[in-house]
What does this fold into?
Amino acid sequence: MIGVLVIPVAALVVGAGPAGLAAAGRLARSGAGSVLVVDREPVASGTSLHYRHPGFGMRDQHRLQDGPAYAASCVAQGTSAGAVMWTGTTCLDWVGPASILCTGPAGQRVVEARAVVLATGCWERPRRARLVSGKRPPGVITTGSLQRLVALVGPRVGRRAVVVGAERVSFSALLALRSGGVRPVGLVREHARRQAPAPIRRATATRMGVPIWTRPRVIEVHGCERVSGVTLAGLDGSGRRHIACDTVVFTGDFVPDDHLARLGALRLDPVRCSPVIDGDQRTTRPGVFAAATCSTPPRLPPWRRPAGSRVRWRCRRTFAARSGLEPSRSRCGSRRPSSGCPPRACVPHLTRFPTASSCCAVASSGMGAGRGQPGRPPARRAAVPPTRAERVHSPRGRLARGCPRGGWSRHAAARRWL
Amino acid sequence: MSASMAIAERLRDLLHAMGLPLDPAPGHRSAIKPDLSGRRLRPHRDPDAIARDPDAGWIVCHCEQVTRAECLTACRSPILGRSVDGLRRRTRAMLGRCREFACAAEILALRAEGTGRPVASMWPRR
It folds into this structure.
């Protein structure tokens, strides 16, 4: 990278969503040194900016807000702590152990960080990846593009819409459709199990009179110039019926944005394609941490602050459902992990992670050695037995004490690393 | 299509060999097709291109790493780019793996800017 400006920072946070900004704010406040947040969108704050309905901020800020207000308070949290923000800047590739090449309207920069926090978020699984056959007319969208389209073109998005999926975001899509002047015809839920809590369903689908069709699948999309309808069928292909609509919204079923993780040769979860992390959000690359929805599925309803163990349990159940397996109750003993059961499904490689002390050793030798070899992580050392301090701060210990996941550990491990 | 340029060159040579040379039409405007193959440096990777036009460093479609400059060039080009689908095929914007999750609205707005038409008339993909 000859002639490219090199910016040394203590911590680089990739993604200025709520998680990235919270991590940046806490890192900056804890005196870690210079903290830089890089976001590819022209406006920081992530996707919560586009959810124009209440339901945010209860868990971390303890007051109910709508998406834009929550986004603004997240940005204020990050910047007031002294974190520097670069928006409209994309991270292209790794050029060192924890150095990333960024590009933006201002030109290219290499950010040489001591710790990198990946908070790149996720997107919804699109139609192509859900293997829905048929034509490819305009009108097949995801909630993410629906929200932005409604903001852009106003009440001309469509007339009748079918929403596929019944997660929390699907009910948010109903609200977005309503503000876009589209009538939701029905909501298709493939899973037998309800995926969103009753208050959300009542406040949206029931109030708007939208039926929830349980256990059919969208098997085909029709239309040429515009979607004309979809064919629904049972999971065994029986009971086909045609629903006329001009918009199909595929919602939920989130896929982590793993671009940087793949380029950085981080170990990825084979089912969810997200970086494998331990309880301190460490990835398999020394000095690189992953936070929020790029490493776990989207969180629980924000207005119910659950215990950390519950979050873990939900994660576990979600993963099991994604992989087509029911969570094994026999291993856990009870349905809820009140017995302090370690979340093995979340962190399958926990014991194989380098511990903090061995990471430091790798980093101090690797930072210099790796500088000449762009994109090649230093070789991993064998794990040494954990010290007493590490045992005390182990995820299992913290889990047993019932501390909530995320907020604390997200920045604390990065802070200790620095 | 990717092969059309090579087919055209081959046809030109065949016609030339048969004694039917092709002359440039009067009023001809040449158009340069952006190189999407990744063989050459894409604009967002090229510091000189960004220095010439800051839009070349502004990525709008993140999956395919298509910049604002490429989209605007395609919208204003004399061939193709007549619809959003044309723009998609020309630049590969919106054809990445997230399938318009993040970029659909931004690219419609860009097309409105490039063609000088109102944003509200851009959906469904015109």
About this structure: Chain B touches chain A through 29 residues (CB under 8 Å). The mean pLDDT of chain B is 85. Helices of chain B lie at 4-17, 47-52, 68-76, 84-91, 104-115.
